[in-house]
Amino acid sequence: MSTRGMMSSSASSGAAPGPSNTLNIQGSQIAPDLRSMAIASGWDQASKLFVNITAPYINRLVVSQSFPAGIEITIGANTIVSSDGSSAALTASVPVSVRNLGQVLASGGNGGYGGLITVFYQSQAVSGYGGAGGAGAGFAPGSLAYSSTGGGGASGSSQTYTGPTFPGDVPATARGGDGGGGGGHGQAGLSGFPGSASGTYTSSSSSPPGGVGSPSNAVTGNSYITWLATGTRTGAIT
Hints:
- It is a single chain.
- 3% of the residues lie in helices and 32% in strands.
- The chain is rod-shaped, with a radius of gyration of 26 Å.
- It has one helix spanning 34-40, and strands at residues 7-8, 22-25, 29-30, 49-53, 57-59, 61-63, 71-75, 80-82, 90-92, 96-100, 103-105, 117-121, 124-128, 138-139, 146-147, 158-160, 173-175, 196-198, 203-206, 219-220, 225-229, 232-234.
- By secondary structure, it is mainly beta.
- The protein contains one helix and 22 strands.
- It starts with 6 loop residues before the first strand and ends with a strand.
């Protein structure tokens, strides 16, 4: 049986304090500051630090500060460590041992926006604007709102010419392209669609759909990590 003492990132009642070398993270966090949390909970800054994460969600786990005797992190079986796309799901720049019993998942890339199109009928213009791309899998920016799949792209807008027309002409309609869907974990987003035109028009101009978003890494700084258990890791490991 382990003789490590236990402490929690949230206050607990009815228990006497033990040796301060273990930090329990039970509540979901955005980029938790492991060193500051451990110090606030009584870590002596000299012992090896053990971090047990049982929170449902961690949006970006970063190990970058000083842990003189080392740090060992256990990611629980029901924990998802992912990203909002601003960095990897797990980043290490100092030596750390990781026991992953849960999931370390790269974010997905955002989808590209749809193309704009403008059509002209007798010098009168109507335009259709492209829809936004869908968000990639993972967390919304700076939040704990999580999706396991990429979101769908928004529909493009349309506009129909309403002025007078020559006999036999069909009023022109410009329809912007739909946005592309967001990518799944570790996948790029999908391209948006070009705009389209219908009816009678004398000329048109358009802009292409926007570029797709790239996924984050699952892990950055893998050379610093000793994997005690790899668990589920989806996305690039660098």
